[in-house]
Amino acid sequence: TPTRDREWRQLRMAAVSSGSPHVVIEPACAADAPEVLECVNAAYAVEIGSEGVAFKTCNRYQDVTAVAADIAAAAAQQDRPQQFAVARRRGADGVATGPVIGCIRLEIWARDSETVCEFGPFAVMPSIQRGGVGKALLGHAAAFAKLHSATKFEIGVVNHRTDGLAWYAKQGFVEAGTKPFVGNFHVENLTRPCHFIILTKDLGKS
Hints:
This protein is α+β, with helices and mostly antiparallel strands. Helices cover 31% and strands 31% of the residues.
């Protein structure tokens, strides 16, 4: 739609101005589902096991059908602003090239007196992590959130993911509480007890 196209033009401009010209971030489509499945499950593979940051026995996504459903739901935006975005390398001609190297799902929620942007899954292929793709996706998420008048980010990180907690702290997130674990798989797939640590970031801060 014209409104959706205008939104994406604004978001692309924000991505370039935020210092991520090497990445093209675009809306995910059904054809992206297999690559999104590979990217997300590769990034979340560190969670499989029972030691260190691991706490479960299964992948983040069980099959490509589940990915396609999330992409379709985000595109439909039936009850709230949503977006499932994918990142690819920017070619010499400025056009996205190659496979999906990162992705993020965003949802806008009205809570009490504020509007919040939740995100997840949020993934970057392990072979290129710490290369700026995650920051580019987070910058894109901030632009999307502000476009929809969200005042803060919120994400739940499993307590065993000390690596993720440290990364978010460097991005300006702070702990805001805890809540029981609810995953996209049954509790019997957990290898040890866990809970979410809620992290938030005021979008008025850089």
